[in-house]
Structures are given as structure tokens and as C-alpha cells.
Design goal:
Shape: flat
Radius of gyration: 21 Å
Order of helices and strands: HEEHHHHH
Structural class: mainly alpha
Number of helices: 6
Distance between the termini: 54 Å
Largest sheet: 2 strands, antiparallel
Strand order of the largest sheet: 1-2
């Protein structure tokens, strides 16, 4: 079965498909006897682990994702994309630390960001990365 119409649901788009397969496990607000099909996660979204929910709500940094991104960056040091991805996750973690006023964590993250930016070799790419500029800007604004 398909989604209910966006106009009837009061949303601009419909992001979930409903299925009769898992009757009785639908979240509140779903049609009776239907549930979400979740193609990217084995556990239904409304039964997610509390850590995942906290990360999605910005209440906790995504430490596991950051750790795996760092591992990929170290496995493939010649690929700037992994380095940029890890750097972006560090920027996100820095924002979290700033919102919680975690000064020591901010300094640690900034040191890691600076190390990543300084060791990045973007000479074989047509355009330079903005990691060094980001580090310089953060240093000027926040004095890390």
C-alpha cells in the first residue's frame, strides 16, 4: 500500500510507506493495522535506541559515526574526501560542545580539526579545501 495523500496528512510530502505486514506495531497516528516500512534500519524507527534518538535531537554527539569516519580517514589518507567528511563531523561536534559550554571539549576538537587541516594534501585536486580557512576563522572568532 502507498502513503496517505500529503494533503490529507497535512504534510508537504509523505516520507513513509505503510504495510499490512506488521499489524499492531504502528506508531501513534498511523492507520490501524499498518506500520512504517523502514528500508535503512532493521529496528522500526519508533523503537530506536535512546542514544540514536538523542543524537538525532542534537542532545548528544554522534561518537560512533565520528570514530568510524576517523578510521576511514586513516585507512585512506590519500583520499581528501574522507578527511573532509571527518572534519565536517568535528565541526558538528564543536557546535554541540559550544552549545553546552564544554570548553575543554571545544579545545580538544579544535586541536584535532587543526591537525586534520594542516596535514591535508589537496595539491592534486583542482580546488583547495576550506578546512584551513575554517580553522583560521574559528581561531579568530573564539580564540582557540
Amino acid at each position: 500500500m502507498g502513503c496517505s495523500s500529503p494533503a490529507r496528512a497535512g504534510h508537504t510530502f509523505c516520507m513513509y510507506a505503510l504495510s499490512e505486514r506488521h499489524a499492531g506495531k504502528a506508531p501513534s497516528g498511523a492507520r490501524e493495522g499498518s506500520t512504517m516500512i523502514n528500508n535503512f534500519c532493521k529496528v522500526p524507527l519508533w523503537e530506536c535506541h535512546s542514544t540514536l534518538v538523542k543524537v538525532a535531537q542534537g542532545q548528544q554527539p554522534a561518537d560512533t559515526v565520528i570514530r568510524h569516519a576517523k578510521e576511514w580517514m586513516e585507512l585512506y589518507p590519500e583520499d581528501i574526501e574522507f578527511r573532509e567528511g571527518y572534519f565536517g563531523l568535528l565541526v558538528s561536534s564543536l557546535r554541540y560542545a559550544q552549545s553546552r559550554d564544554l570548553r575543554n571539549e571545544q579545545k580538544r576538537l579544535f586541536r584535532e580539526m587543526k591537525r586534520i587541516a594542516e596535514t591535508a594534501d589537496d595539491s592534486e585536486y583542482e580546488e583547495a579545501t576550506d578546512m584551513r580557512e575554517t580553522v583560521a576563522l574559528l581561531q579568530r572568532i573564539y580564540g582557540y
